[in-house]
Amino acid sequence: MEEEREEGKTPKRRLKVLVPIEESEISELVIKRSGQFAKATGCEITVLTVVEDIVHYPEFPHTELYQKRQEKADELLKRVKKVFDQYGIECQTRLAIGPIEEEIVRIAEEGGFDVIFLGSRGKGGLKRMLLGSVADTVIRHAHCSVAVIR
Predict the structure, then answer these.
(1) What is the CATH number of the domain that holds 127?
(2) Domain for residue 103, yes or no?
(3) pLDDT digits (tens, 9 = 90+) for 32-79
(4) Chain mean position to CA 46
């Protein structure tokens, strides 16, 4: 990790930002906002996408369904990295497998991230109560700040 040094001062650690995305319009906005934030602050960006393990059995990573979903996720990460590169923003990419909310929270904590930039689909009322919300769960369980982009 890069550190900045000013004469006579202790080195400052760059802010670490986790940017979980999926193939959606709100993720496009999250990418834009996190890019603007990175340009303004010089923070360290890691873009994450999660392939949800929906069938919960050990063979899941070897199924055709998983292989297709992983290929789509890899393509998404490559596209986003290319966009950041075009704007001169260095970013890391990461692919995880498992329940989306749990993976976001786990990776944020294990990686020592300071902020999570997360999209909200804007589900309201009964839909939110019945279906739950990734943003709500991450906000409740994350050890760090969460910026919800709408």
Answers:
(1) 3.40.50.620
(2) yes
(3) 999 999 999 999 999 999 998 766 666 666 678 888 989 999 999 999
(4) 7
